[in-house]
Amino acid sequence: MAFFSSGSSGESLFKNPIGLDYDYQPKLVKYRETEMRQIAAAIRPLFQKRSGRNIFIHGPSGVGKTAAVRNLLNEVEQETDEIVLFYINCWKSDTTFKMLLQMCDGIGYKFTQNKRADELFDIVKKDINRKAAVIVLDEVDKIDDIDFLYNIIEEVFNKSIALITNNRDWISELDSRIKSRLTAEMLEFKPYNLTETRGVLQQRLEFVFAQNCWDNDAFEAVVQKASGMQDIRSGLYLMKEAANTAEERNSARITMADVAAAVKKLEEFSIKKTEELEEETRFILNLIKKNSGRKIGEVYEAYKSAGGQAVYKTFQRKIAKLEDDRFIAAEKIIGGSEGKTTILKFGHEKKLTDF
Ligand SMILES: Nc1ncnc2c1ncn2[C@@H]1O[C@H](COP(=O)(O)OP(=O)(O)O)[C@@H](O)[C@H]1O
Ligand SMILES: [Mg+2]
User: Fold this and answer.
1) 41: closest CA among 72, 8, 71, 18?
2) pLDDT tens, 95-138?
3) Comparing C-alpha atoms, which of 76, 106, 71 is closest to residue 88?
4) What ligand has the least distance to the C-alpha of 64?
5) CATH code, residues 193-274
6) Considering every ligand atom, which ligand is closest to the CA of 60?
7) What is the CATH number of domain 33-188?
8) Which residue of 221, 251, 309, 322 is 20 to 30 Å from 240, comparing CA positions?
9) What is the β-pairing status of strands 159-165 and 328-334?
10) What is the pTM of this model?
11) Contact 52/162 with Cβ under 8 angstroms?
């Protein structure tokens, strides 16, 4: 058998496959002009050697927060050498030390061996205090040591700090000592609507794929699914998977059947994730599925009647985790007879952010 003979046409469907890489940075971030303008305004004073403003950026995953900010950083980089730029993903660099190593790398400092965190911080601080800095902490809710953030706020001068998170509650629960010193503006990234989702995916399609290889209805199915999940990343995933399936069967076109196979894979992925939950959490998740749309207190009652043992605090913690992992949505409602309560809703599908 010729396992590696090229396909019938011999031509790849992919023109620029890097456009579907996880880290690919699109040249143009469509539909985010307003948001980017606000971020740019917070940074602009740094160009005049004045301190910039700080900004909290929040919104669900896959709505262009990272893409928009990185795009702006690239623009600043092209404009000036007088502003040092740091982009740190706090999930990947999950300790203060790793973050500092990344910052040292950012200022071109190489003699990091055998140095302690505080020594590295001094070096970074001295360097950036001669200039100005934009410090972006992405997925900042994963930061392990909030004091580090405090030190940056206190000891770095001409700066703009942008803190990005999917988790709005993280901001409201942030240590007030830090919050009051940050005095950050809030900026929300709302999910794209259907037309915008189509626009973003269409733009990527044109960059990545050879001309005319997508059937219209196949692409539209991708758009609908991504829009339903409110996550561009799942749309990109579906495009890649569907195209791979088409290539495997040596087809010159990507069809509805290829997209259906990709959607199935996406769904299997979310089921697999559910299986990875520990037993107790899965038990709670099932209860929420049955009681979707009810108040947290009611779900806790149902949990107790079904034999649940955990005290309310523990229960709440598990709920928070489920929300963090996007299995459920917890909506805080103000008003009504009880003043404040939380409504729990069973989530749609798991998003692909945690790949
Ligand atoms: N407006 C846009 N234009 C082009 N690509 C986008 C746009 N919005 C999101 N994307 C792409 O969708 C994916 C998810 O966006 P990302 O910025 O990582 O989302 P978030 O940080 O909000 O989770 C990335 O691959 C990104 O390049
Ligand atoms: Mg992001």
Assistant:
1) 72
2) 899 999 999 999 999 999 999 999 999 999 999 999 999 999 99
3) 106
4) 1
5) 1.10.8.60
6) 1
7) 3.40.50.300
8) 322
9) unpaired
10) 0.79
11) no
